[in-house]
Amino acid sequence: MKEVFKAPWTISLIAITTVVSVLLLGIVLVGLLTGPRYDIAWIVAMVVIPLVILLTSVFFSIRGYAIADKTLYVQRIGWNTKIDLENLMTADVDPQAMRNSLRKWGNGGLFSFSGKFYNRKLGNYEAYATDPHKAVVLKLRDRTIVVTPEYPERFVTQVLLISS
């Protein structure tokens, strides 16, 4: 049986995504409407790079989470990130889990909060998040993962049920 949970967006994710998307598309417009049309460096800097950033971020956005066969599937656009739950030690709802985190590598709010993070509470962890206030902390033997499903308590119940 496969259980699917949506990944709701927090207001801050909506705001960051909107502002940064408008900024990137504005840069593209400036690049197309002004400057030297035949200068490859201009086109790359003002058109290609902003579009690559935007499209890559869309591609890596998080749509939801599916749980099946002791595996968590972080649903992206057109593909899934698979996380084996075989070594799951604990699963807890913690709305403060991502608080005061330092992003080491990843995305800080353009379509998701995802990548490698650190804070004093969790240490090093991986986030696949869209609403940090709905955080679920999955502690596996070799790593810690934070996800943000629509119904965190129900998600924890399903994860613990399927991984036992």
Automatic annotation (TrEMBL):
Spans through the membrane: 12-34, 40-62
Classification via InterPro entries: Bacterial_PH-related (IPR027783)
The Bacterial Pleckstrin homology domain, residue ranges: 64-158
The organism's place on the tree of life at top rank: Bacteria
Protein name: Bacterial Pleckstrin homology domain-containing protein
Keywords (A to Z) from UniProt: Membrane, Transmembrane, Transmembrane helix
